[in-house]
TrEMBL record:
Name recorded for this polypeptide: ATP-grasp domain-containing protein
Domain of life: Bacteria
Keyword Cell membrane attached: no
Gene3D superfamilies: 3.40.50.20, ATP-grasp fold, A domain, ATP-grasp fold, B domain
Length: 352
């Protein structure tokens, strides 16, 4: 089986490659990325540099690579590529190539955080309190409705990923402590600073919502047209830039039940990620849906369930094994390097 993996330099690509090789060592993996120095060049069997998803040549370049490498399945890891792949899914299928991607109509909803929350709310699923804003006046009114400054409030762009644009408004910010005791990647911002940034600016659609103070969860699901095959919640013990660097698999019934209802409602298919955070009462509230393989899904293999590999089995119409996940598995991450010579060729340095 020949797999094409996009986003060969994405944070989760290394773990996903490990998962696929663990499932079947004979799999041939071709990685692509916009960066010629993406580390996927070292880990994959073949590597190509491609234009970004915003380039008109993106799909044609991917098609050429697929034909050259006899690709059977495409696994997109880059959120911005998903809609393009969904729109061209049937054209690739005619060539005998399956793409692990949701239908375009579903992506239109779940990739937009406001549309996602509004749809869940209309269908009777619990959501945090939220408002849509696209100018400073609406932003001020939303904060007032949410109880700011007595209550902490947060906001994020409706269309974003990787924690881009996410900020927390709190009047209890201790800037002195943040300056001298925290690294300069804090999500906190003063209300007045946000207002000054927004005045006389054209804002993207912002979702302004109640701040959820409880633990954060990321859930890796495998779904067969709305039917949940696997659901592995992991508690995000520590994060860096929105990426889990310390996580534990936990069998949490409320999270599993909520995930199943979401997958069934949208009739999702394949590998899906859902993120939750608990509110002040301990209830899980949805943050977002990642309609693709998540970057920390590698923990599923250690828990006995190779979700990325099972995902390509499902995509290719093969039988998915039934195994029981192991709970309480903890994953801690560390940095690892790859090397390139002066000509841009990768090589391995024999440290060990």
């Amino acid at each position: 089986m020949n797999i094409l993996l996009t986003g060969g330099g994405a944070p989760g690509a290394a773990g996903i490659i490990k998962c696929l090789r663990n499932g079947n060592p004979e799999i041939q993996i071709t990685c692509v990325d916009i960066n010629p120095y993406a580390y996927g060049q070292v880990l994959a069997d073949k590597f190509y540099t491609v234009p970004g998803a915003g380039d008109q040549k993106f799909i044609s370049e991917i098609k050429n690579i697929c034909e050259k490498e006899s690709i059977d399945i495409i696994i997109p890891l880059v959120t911005r590529e998903l809609s393009l792949f969904a729109a061209n899914k049937h054209n690739f299928y005619k060539l005998g190539i399956n793409i692990c991607v949701q239908d375009a109509k579903i992506l239109h909803i779940i990739n937009d955080k406001y549309k996602l929350l509004a749809t869940l709310q209309r269908n009777g699923l619990q959501t945090p309190e939220f408002y849509l804003c696209n100018d400073v006046d609406q932003f001020e009114k939303a904060c007032e409705k949410l109880g700011y400054p007595e209550k902490t409030v947060c906001f994020k762009p409706a269309l974003s990923n990787g924690s881009r644009g996410f900020r927390v408004l709190s009047r209890d910010i201790d800037e002195f402590r943040l300056l001298f005791e925290e690294k300069p990647n804090t999500a906190y911002i003063h209300y007045e600073s946000a207002i000054n940034l927004f005045i006389d600016r054209v804002l993207p659609n912002l979702v302004v919502m109640e701040y959820l103070p409880g633990p954060e969860w990321s859930v890796d699901c495998l779904v067969d047209n709305g039917s949940l095959l696997y659901c592995i919640p992991r508690l995000r013990n520590r994060m860096n830039g929105g990426i889990s660097i310390d996580a534990t698999t936990v069998q949490e019934p409320s999270i599993i039940d909520f995930s199943e209802r979401i997958c069934r409602m949208f009739k999702l298919n394949g590998n899906i990620g859902i993120q939750f955070k608990q509110d002040i009462n301990g209830l899980p509230q949805i943050l977002e849906i990642n309609p693709r393989l998540q970057g920390s899904i590698v923990i599923s293999v250690a828990a006995g369930v190779n979700l990325p590999y099972y995902g390509i089995l499902l995509c290719s119409g093969q039988k998915v094994p039934q195994v029981e996940p192991q709970w309480g598995i903890r994953m801690c991450r560390y940095w690892e390097e790859v090397y390139f010579d002066a000509n841009g060729q990768s090589f391995t340095y024999p440290f060990f």
